[in-house]
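Please, structure for the following, as tokens.
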Amino acid sequence: MAGKRTIGQAWGRIRYTPDFRTNAFTDALAPGSTLVRANAAPYLRPRDIRGGGEAIFDFYSPYVLVDGTLRAELLGQGAKLEIRTLEDKLTSQAEPDLWSQWQTIASAAGGTTVQLGRPRYNGKDVSIDGKYRFQIRVSVSADARRTAAAGLKNLSLEMYFENGIMSIPQIFPGANTIDFRLKDADRLQGPVRITYTYETASGERSQTNVLRASDFHGDAAQYSFEAPTLIRCKSLAIAY
């Protein structure tokens, strides 16, 4: 409570649905992956059918995560999925990375759905609740008797976070100028769609702008739009 009023909170959702038929998903992999992409399922597999290897998907959130669902499908024998989370850095980003132990969340061929947040916040399981960064490791053990490829067929994540309402760039009635920054614009591989949805006296409206690599200068891009008769902003969506 602050001044006898509740502190404003907002929430958001991050969806990660990679297309393994292209190499675009590799920007989410940590360095050192030994699994390779194939043109047929399993799309992420060892280079040799009897060999082993691993790949780590590295996920960051600018806001505190509270819940999430992972859906994946493994093919073949010897493939598994594991999760670990990064401990919060309480004083500065210069603190060393302290990770939890890896915990297996799937180890059998077939589809699986795993709740990663609040249901696992029980003192014994690895949970993303209250975290900003976590990793999913796909691994395949070597097996000299294996006759069919093993690995990952598909994977998707839906994560929920909480944030203060003023941490999202605000828009106002009339003219608005938006500054959009990336950590490294040179790594941008496709267009970024930014959509503001807002309430007006005549109903709900939305404004979408598409930014491409050529729009960024020094990792920043700027654009403007009009929002006449805006009453309040309802949501911001960024799709890439």
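The mean pLDDT is 91. Residues 72 and 86 are 22 Å apart (CA to CA).
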